[in-house]
Specification:
Number of domains of chain C: 2
Radius of gyration of chain C: 24 Å
Largest sheet of chain B: none
Shape of chain C: globular
Structural class of chain C: alpha/beta
Oligomer: heterotrimer
Distance between the termini of chain C: 55 Å
Number of helices of chain C: 10
Radius of gyration of chain B: 27 Å
Number of strands of chain B: 0
Largest interface: B-C, 60 and 81 residues
CATH architecture of the largest domain in chain C: 3-Layer(aba) Sandwich
Chains: A alpha/beta (289), B mainly alpha (231), C alpha/beta (269)
Order of helices and strands of chain B: HHHHHHHH
Number of helices of chain B: 8
CATH topology of the largest domain in chain C: Rossmann fold
Strand order of the largest sheet of chain C: 3-2-1-4-5-6
CATH class of the largest domain in chain C: Alpha Beta
Chain lengths: 289, 231, 269
């Protein structure tokens, strides 16, 4: 029982509140319009401000568990970087991060930008164990932690890595993170040691309240949860597709806003119902006494 | 004697990490300390794996309640270990096409990759998604307008819940530009940016001081509970 | 000897941080020495720690086990160390009452530290036979694999008391809601600010941030450890003063004639 109501009813209601809008999305293909909030707009502007050919460090700090919230962010970031002809250098602080990165590279770069060459226009350097220890080291010696790319090629032989010796050599760093190590650690160990470096973070809803503390100082922009992802996705779609049709794989975040809306409405209804029961019970007690 | 050595290692390791941000020459030492910890943690995994096997085998042989779960755990452990270490189904790397084991264990097409994609990914995604159900039941039970503070908390929750969806735009989108700060989506940002950030920063400062104090107690050997206390 | 910033001995970008760190450490060490000299500070009651005995007693009366979760991070995380400290107290009380204590862990090193701590607590309680190393067991490093085990264990064993002391992430609510569902008395402690709301909503007592780190000093009652808490408070007061000064200076700068620009002048060529 949960406050006088069998919690299984709550679970059933939540399942319906999420599942029905997903079905509605699937049938109609419609999404809600999004207007960007300042943290999402800041992410878009930071990437727009970079000159063509700039190298961007992108860290995939999540695993399949938080994929629902973070994969749409990764897709939008990668699409935006490719469209601007920027060069992502991908790393991961989570063991399953490189696989997520490969999926994003496959879905975005290999599908829509087949002319881009691994090692020259982008590269996946894989995972390195050590959590914040990795961040401390790449602050002074990037190649010590990432000596080869994921296929085993030494980074010294990769054109994209020319002149890169430390994290501060990248004009922009993006972390897509689900927890530890993630946005907080990037701020503490990389952003604070490199005052000129621009750091962007895409974080889960649970992490957002914590990471907000660093915005807009140490963190230039942030995508907070699926709402932030949807806002940024809309900005990127408007910049690339204009009034044309956006391929469905680039609308993933916006398609999740309908289940989010009904989930939130259900939460409000549950809170109101819980309070109604609470006050009714209190009144009964008062009458009885 | 062994406790004194442990305390000395704690003191030296702690001091190295403490001074490394300030002394460039100590950066390498701090990296070494981190590496040592990672090596120790990796070696300790053998202990963990041994504990897991021992406990599950004991349950299985005793055939007590839930022994079936132990069987599933052991089967999953052994199979994953075997396909990972044995590189089952791994495609040879193009640089060494004649060497069967030259590919990586998690390359596409390998048995390990299959387990990751079709077993681990759906299970972990499902468990993360279960949070939505728990949030709903916790919200129903915990959000009660018992007093002024609780009522303010409740009202804030409503603003965030509505402001983070299209409902906010529908409900308050009609407000003129000069009152745009009162639109729910903007109010939600203000709450997160101002009130949430202020509270979080205060807690973070307290935590940082707590960590500093705990660190000093550990380095000086005042707090030895992690070593089994003074016994 | 004070070296110049250009001597490359000292990182010039970190000088301010070094000053803050030195001041904080000085406050803590000075307060610790003052406490040793007899000026022991009074510590307010921390309800979550006071409730340990009540929770263990309840489990004993009901004949049900106690579940202790020391977070999902390794021993290099200070929250895990703080969690092990609380475990030591819980284990000591459980040994006195002869209650069953289960400690599933997600890191091998934590398992070893927890075993040391619990064994020592049992010895101190005069119950060496109570200690059973198999009850402190490794489950998995995988976050949700561990959460699934703990949730399953709660459903099967129906613990009367659940302790969550350490570093937690998304699994916090899974643990706390399952504990709530089986009617356990729940006490949590963490410094992960993102997880605090979940614990506050689902647990009976929550140690928030620095309260959690104060647990070791609070439980030991040792004067020098209690002294460090006063040092923390002095450092906090200094930080508050610095913040107030910074806010005042930024406000004055924002309204000073040199900063406030005339919009008309900006438009004019």
């Amino acid at each position: 029982m949960s406050g006088g109501l069998d919690r299984r009813w709550i679970y059933l209601a939540m399942m319906l509140a999420v599942a029905l809008p997903i079905l509605w999305n699937g049938v109609t293909g419609k999404t809600f319009p999004e207007s960007p909030t300042p943290p999402s707009q800041a992410c878009f502007d930071a990437i727009e401000a970079l000159p063509e050919g700039s190298r961007v460090l992108v860290s995939f700090d999540y695993d399949p568990a938080s994929e629902g919230e973070l994969a749409p962010m990764a897709t939008s970031f990668m699409r935006h970087l490719m469209h601007k002809r920027l060069k992502p250098v991908v790393i991961a602080l989570w063991p399953l991060g490189p696989t997520k990165a490969e999926e994003t590279i496959s879905n975005v770069i290999k599908a829509d930008f087949p002319d881009r060459v691994s090692g020259r226009d982008f590269v996946n350097l894989g995972f390195q164990t050590g959590n914040e220890g990795v961040l401390k080291v790449i602050g002074t010696d990037f190649r010590k932690q990432f000596p080869v790319d994921r296929s085993g090629t030494p980074v010294d032989r990769l054109p994209i890595m020319e002149g890169i010796t430390k994290a501060g050599d990248f004009p922009l760093v993006i972390t897509i993170s689900a927890g530890y190590p993630g946005g907080k650690e990037w701020v503490q160990y990389v952003s604070s040691s490199n005052p000129g470096l621009v750091l962007l973070a895409g974080v889960t809803g649970v992490q957002a309240s914590q990471v907000y503390s660093y915005y807009p100082g140490q963190l230039r922009g942030m995508l907070a949860a699926i709402k932030g992802a949807a806002e940024y996705e809309a900005l990127v779609s408007a910049a690339i597709d204009g009034d044309g049709v956006t391929p469905p794989r680039y609308t993933e975040a916006r398609r999740r806003m309908a289940p989010q809306l009904f989930g939130h409405l259900l939460l409000i209804a549950l809170i109101v119902a819980g309070n109604a029961m609470y006050f009714a019970q209190r009144e009964r007690k008062a009458v009885a006494s | 004697m062994s406790r004194s050595v442990a305390l000395l290692i704690c003191l030296v390791g702690g001091l190295t990490m403490l001074v490394s941000p300030f002394l460039p020459m100590a950066t390498g030492w701090a990296n070494d300390v981190t590496d040592w910890f990672n090596i120790l943690a990796a070696m300790a995994f053998v202990l963990g794996g041994g504990s897991l096997l021992k406990v599950q085998l004991m349950r299985l042989s005793a055939r007590g309640p839930g022994w079936g779960y132990s069987a599933v755990t052991l089967l999953a452990f052994v199979v994953t270990l075997w396909v990972g270490l044995g590189k089952v189904g791994v495609v040879a790397d193009p640089s060494a096409p004649t060497v069967a084991w030259s590919g990586k264990p998690d390359d596409e097409g390998s048995a390990f990759w299959w387990i990751y994609l079709y077993v681990m990914t759906p299970i972990t995604s499902t468990l993360f998604a279960v949070l939505a159900f728990y949030v709903a039941s916790a919200a129903f039970r915990a959000f009660r307008a018992k007093n002024l503070e609780a009522t303010l908390l409740l009202a804030t929750a409503f603003v965030i819940l509505l402001g983070r969806t299209f409902a906010g735009v529908v409900l308050t989108g009609w407000l003129p530009d000069w009152a745009s700060g009162l639109r729910l989506e903007n109010l939600a940002v203000t709450i997160m940016d101002v009130f949430n950030t202020a509270g979080n920063r205060a807690i973070i400062i307290g935590i940082a001081l707590g960590v500093a104090s705990t660190g000093i107690r550990l380095m000086l050997g005042l707090d030895r509970s992690y070593l089994g206390g003074d016994a | 000897m004070v070296l110049g910033a250009d001597a490359s001995f000292l990182n010039p970008d970190k000088l301010l941080l070094l000053v803050v760190l030195a001041a904080t450490c000085a406050c803590i060490v000075a307060s610790m020495m003052a406490a040793r000299a007899g000026r022991v500070p009074k510590i307010r009651r921390i309800a979550g720690l006071e409730a340990v005995e009540e929770a263990v007693g309840r489990a004993t009366e009901m004949g049900r086990p106690i579940l202790f979760v020391p977070g999902i991070q390794d021993m290099d995380n200070p929250m895990t160390v703080a969690g092990i400290t609380v475990l030591s107290r819980v284990a000591g009380t459980a040994a006195q009452y002869d209650a069953t204590l289960d400690v599933p862990v997600s890191r091998s090193l934590v398992m070893q530290a927890a075993r040391e701590s619990v064994q020592a607590a049992a010895l101190q309680a005069g119950q060496p036979d109570w200690y059973d190393p198999e009850r402190i067991r490794y489950i998995t490093d995988e976050q949700f694999g561990y959460a699934a085990y703990a949730a399953g264990a709660m459903a099967r064993d129906k613990p009367a008391a659940c302790f969550y002391m350490g570093c937690f992430f998304a699994e916090s609510l899974i643990l706390a809601e399952n504990g709530n569902a089986v009617g356990a008395i729940q006490i949590a402690g963490t410094a992960e600010t993102a997880q605090l709301p979940f614990f506050v909503a689902s647990c009976d007592y929550t140690l928030i941030g620095e309260e959690f780190f104060a647990a070791s000093a609070y439980l030991s009652g040792a004067p020098d450890q209690l002294g460090t808490l006063r040092g923390q408070d002095i450092a906090k007061a200094l930080i508050a003063l610095a913040l107030a000064a910074g806010v005042a200076m930024a406000t004055i700068e924002a309204f000073s004639p040199a900063t406030v620009t005339d919009p008309a002048a900006e438009v004019a060529p």
